[in-house]
Design goal:
The chain is of the alpha+beta class and 1013 residues long. 55% of the residues lie in helices and 18% in strands.
Length: 1013
């Protein structure tokens, strides 16, 4: 085949250009995203029940739903949270589960449970997790001058009716979700004095309004040749019509406006959004699944510029821009790709003795990269941070094949062969070892594809990118490289460039190698003891490394959640939030806050209460962010000792995919009954005991809420002849607003409520009366007793029933001992325990990677045994892996890098790469032995012949990874532990391949020769 190609250079060049053109076209058609398109195996169920207590929500709604939903197959985790007036159930499934079928089953289970719900409870909302549902960015909008709540209500209606719809008309925008909205209500404020004097009850008001607010169907009437539809105008459509509704009181006609005041006002606030110190609306922009993020951002930006011209009284700002993050990450990785290519080419200048060989390298790498884009398109891989990182990793290995081909052709030329024959023999000779080298590297990546969960699916892109790059570069090195070499050197003469390169190239490398070789072989025992010491040191340090699932990503933005841990009103929450923003806004590039509930429709996370706040904080640098967070913590702790402050990562695609429990250890306490959790007092007592037993744990007590309990006295009810139902109805009417209907404005329905002056619960009970069976008014205070009580703020449920989670942040090195102590002490108090957290996920990842390493090594052994037709020789080659791994662990320990998924993948990949040098060297030594050289002479000569190729292939791989050591984008930070691992492993692996593996081969051959004798 090579001979045919050498004889048809024009056909080869034209074919290459055709592939390059196809690759360029494919690169512009490939979708660009931050991460690969992966289904997140998670479904959430939201439900609300207005004015229901936490226990009512848990017992009536949540427990039944949880029992139904946990029967769904392939469910790995289910967790529920019940709060006052709402609940949330989160379900996680095995990766690979069809979410469409799971979604259908969840709907069926929910429908089966809904039949037992109270009538006022609406059907729960079910949301299927999807990477496309994550907002690309948020648009914060506010009025420049906002002087009243009524004006902000009008602004909310304008945003919903105009701005939202215009944004959603863009073809790339799927949905615009809004938080911070005010909703209107039509209020009726009765004059209590007039009502009492005229003996008008609220029920009479409600009845009169209901009679004038009927929805009637249409009728058909024939009139001669014609037929007409008749509809009845019987609905209230404006506040003015409501004011003119008539009441017939003992034959006297009155209107609503005679006895009450009416108007439109914002409904009771449950959540507010602040952008800086201004009350704003937060618009989450969600793209179509097939839209390009950068193109959508460009169109939305253009529309926002148009909005600024059309609505000068409104301010617009973009926040948490994922498109900017994507462009930054992709640009950095592309820059790293070309930097790696340039460094690899420059490295060649110091080894190759002419100016033309680096030109061939400079041609082969871009050609391989561009043609790889074509195969990306054919296989369906997008351009993302993972696939680009794989391509960067592959660049160093891509150049290896071309280097070995060029070096081998040069060696045949030095033996006196003609240019054509050198290109033919030199290429044919290395096809088999190159193919073996590519297969061993790919064999390392194959087990990564079979990793469980999202990590395995995610690194499919990286494995495929490397495999595509390697096979393309192999094809380029044995087809294009010899043809280009033949063309460039056909009429070659040494010029000034060649002389310059010969002057700067490394000289006397063979002499340096020979000196080290003789030193190693004269001190064999010392070298073997040193290798054993490195192995032992690496084994010991492996247990000292910190275990993590994924590497920590430095960021200049954070989410800070504050739970005031007291029953404050939304207005007090607003006051505290404004104070924090005012104090720290000058230290932040951006600070915004959701005070109270977040009102996004696609909110999959647990919702906040009105006494909680969530701050988004962005600073210029990560160091400044730590100072701001520390200052806010100190401020909150000093002024609100009961409050709790937690930090969380900003929700982007990477965090969504690798969302893990940030807490090292979570203890779930449960009682003997599945339906009821342990008592609050017993849990607090247990926590105090654990703190005294193990002070370093610093356990937080569960969040609590103070509730008012109105106890109805049965003996008083019997004494005063009052029914319990009548008493409860009176209390409900006086405590809460009375919803009496809806106003149809044409574009929306506005609730109509009867309300009164705000009173404390104590004033309501003192001023309220209830009629008994004898039509006598009995004071409510004589029938009830009121007390305040602390209870759980939320009720958490899992498969094992209701639980109380305890977060343990300071476990130190004695996690197993802590788990055993907590389990024993909880058992003594009749508390059951289950454990979760980062400790367990880290261990699971570690053992999974151990299995991957074992499978990868077995794959390597099978390939090497097949290549060398030997069962013992592959063992010598595989000895290199534990030596390189031990040294790499030492470097990780010195660098302070954890043993995480990325660093462990780096160890696996490094094991497949470094062994390639040893394969080529041992293959050369065996050929020299067969030609008649003595064992030690063959080892030395093989080392001299393969010295430059081994150094060049190692350095090009290392230099291709060097740009990954700097940069702050997600892609670079994610791949940095793997890059450091590979650089450390390749560095020591080069030395091991050149000197240590030949020493082991020497001992193996001596044993074989002695046995033969």
């Amino acid at each position: 085949m090579v001979k045919f190609l050498l004889q048809r250079p024009v056909a080869v060049i034209m074919s290459t250009i055709a592939f390059i053109v196809l690759g360029i076209v494919a690169s512009f058609r490939l979708p660009v995203s931050l991460m690969p398109e992966i289904d997140i195996p998670e479904i959430t169920v939201h439900y609300t029940w207005d004015n229901a207590s936490i226990n009512e929500v848990e017992n009536t709604l949540t427990s039944g739903l949880r029992g139904q939903l946990q029967q769904i197959p392939k469910l790995t985790e289910i967790q529920s949270e019940s709060k006052e007036g709402s609940g949330l159930i989160t379900m996680k499934f095995e990766y690979g589960t069809s979410l469409d079928y799971a979604f259908i089953e969840v709907n069926q289970k929910v429908d089966a449970s809904v039949n037992g719900f109270p009538k006022e409870v609406q059907r729960p909302t079910i949301i299927k997790a999807s990477t496309s549902d994550l907002p690309v960015f948020y648009i914060n909008i506010n009025l420049k001058e906002n002087d009243s709540e009524e004006k902000f209500l009008e602004f909310c209606e304008f945003t919903d009716a105009v701005l939202k719809k215009r944004l959603e008309q863009l073809p790339d925008v799927a949905m615009v979700d809004i938080s911070g909205m005010y909703s209107p209500e039509l209020y009726i404020f009765p004059d209590e004095a007039k009502l009492r004097s005229l003996k008008i009850t609220q029920d009479q008001l409600k009845s009169a309004i209901d009679n004038n607010n009927q929805v009637s169907g249409s009728l058909s009437v024939k009139d001669g040749y014609y037929q007409y539809s008749i509809s009845f105008a019987s609905q209230i459509t404006s506040p003015e019509e409501l004011e003119n509704v008539y009441l017939n009181i003992n034959g006297r006609l009155l209107q609503i406006k005679d006895v009450a005041r009416t108007g439109i006002r914002p409904r009771e606030k449950r959540g507010i959004f602040f952008n800086g110190d201004k009350q704003s609306l937060c618009l989450a922009v969600i793209k179509q699944s097939n839209a390009r993020m950068s193109e959508m951002k460009e169109k939305v930006t253009g529309l926002l510029d148009q909005f600024r011209e059309e609505y000068p009284d409104v301010e617009f700002s973009v926040s948490r821009d994922q498109a900017q993050l994507l462009n930054y990450s992709i640009d950095n990785l592309v820059q790293s790709l070309w930097q790696g290519i340039l460094l690899a080419i420059v490295a060649m200048l110091f080894f190759l003795q002419d100016a033309r060989s680096p030109v061939i390298i400079a041609i082969s790498i871009p050609v391989s990269v561009v043609i790889s884009m074509l195969f990306f398109q054919l296989i369906g891989i997008s351009i993302n941070t993972i696939s680009l990182s794989g391509l960067i990793l592959g660049v160093g290995m891509m150049v290896d094949n071309s280097i070995i081909t060029i070096d081998n052709i040069n060696q045949h030329r030095m033996r006196g062969k003609s240019l054509f024959q050198a290109c033919l023999d030199g290429t044919n000779e290395i096809i088999t070892p190159l193919l073996s080298s590519v297969l061993t590297t790919c064999a390392i990546f194959v087990p990564l594809i079979f990793m469980s969960g999202i990590a395995g699916a995610l690194f499919y892109d990286q494995a495929m990118a490397v495999a595509i790059g390697l096979f393309v570069s192999l094809a380029v090195s044995i087809t294009i490289v010899p043809v280009v070499f033949h063309l460039l050197f056909m009429h070659a003469k040494e010029g000034k460039a060649t002389h310059f390169i010969q002057r700067i190239s490394f000289k006397h490398l063979d002499d340096y190698y020979t000196n080290i070789f003789h030193f190693i072989f004269h001190h064999k025992l010392i070298v073997m003891i040193g290798c054993l010491a490195v192995l032992v040191l690496g084994f010991v340090l492996a247990f000292q490394l910190r275990l993590e699932r994924m590497p920590a990503i430095d960021t200049n933005e954070i989410i800070l959640r504050v739970d005031w841990n007291s029953s404050i009103h939304i207005d007090e929450n607003e006051h505290r939030v404004k104070d924090i923003i005012k104090r720290f806004s000058d230290k932040c590039e951006e600070i915004s806050c959701h005070a109270g509930e977040k009102m996004f429709f696609l909110n999959r996370e647990k919702n906040q209460n009105i006494n909680e706040a969530e701050f988004y904080i962005r600073t210029l640098h990560a160091e400044e962010l730590e100072k701001v967070i520390s200052s806010i913590r100190e401020h909150v702790k000093a002024n609100f000792p009961m409050a709790k402050v937690d930090i969380a990562k900003v929700d982007n695609l990477f965090e969504q995919l690798f969302k893990d429990n940030d807490v090292p250890l979570v203890v779930y306490l449960s009682g003997e009954s599945r339906r009821g959790g342990p008592e609050l007092d017993s849990v607090n007592t247990f926590i105090e005991y654990l703190d005294s037993l193990m002070p370093t744990l610093q356990l937080d007590k569960p969040s609590t809420s103070e509730r008012i309990v109105v106890e109805i006295l049965p003996d008083r009810l019997a004494l005063y002849k009052v029914s319990q139902g009548t008493l409860i109805n009176v209390l409900e009417k006086n405590i809460s607003k009375m919803n009496i209907g809806k106003l149809n404005t044409g574009s929306r329905y506005v609730p109509i409520v009867i309300t009164g002056e705000e009173k404390t619960i104590l004033d309501i009970i003192r001023s309220s009366f209830v009629s008994n069976n004898d039509q006598l008014d009995i004071p409510v205070s004589a029938l009830t007793r009121m007390e305040k009580k602390l209870d759980y703020k939320s009720i958490i449920g899992r498969k094992e029933g209701v639980v109380v989670p305890l977060n343990v942040y300071h476990v130190g090195d004695s996690t197993e001992q802590i788990i055993q102590t907590i389990k024993t002490e909880a058992g003594n108090r009749n508390l059951n325990t289950t454990f979760d957290g980062q400790y367990f996920s880290g261990q699971e990842t570690l053992w999974e990677m151990v299995v991957v390493v074992i499978v990868a090594i077995l794959m390597l052994y099978f390939i090497l045994a097949a290549q060398f037709e030997s069962l013992t020789l592959p063992i010598i080659l595989l000895v290199e892996i534990p030596l390189d791994v031990a040294f790499t662990i030492l470097i990780l320990w010195l660098s302070g890098i954890s043993l995480n998924l990325m660093s462990m993948i780096g160890i696996v990949v490094m094991s497949g790469i470094v062994i390639n040098d040893s394969i080529l060297k041992i293959d050369t030594i065996i050929h020299l032995q067969r030609s008649g050289l003595a064992l030690e002479d063959a080892i030395h000569e093989g080392g001299v012949r393969r010295l430059k190729p081994i150094l060049m292939t190692s350095l090009t791989t290392i230099f291709a990874l060097v740009p990954m050591l700097w940069g702050n984008d997600i892609g670079t930070q994610l791949q940095r532990p793997m890059s450091i691992t590979l650089i450390a492993g390749m560095t020591v692996g080069t030395f091991v391949s050149l000197f240590i593996i030949p020493l082991f081969y020497y001992y193996l051959e001596r044993i074989f020769i002695s046995r033969k004798k």
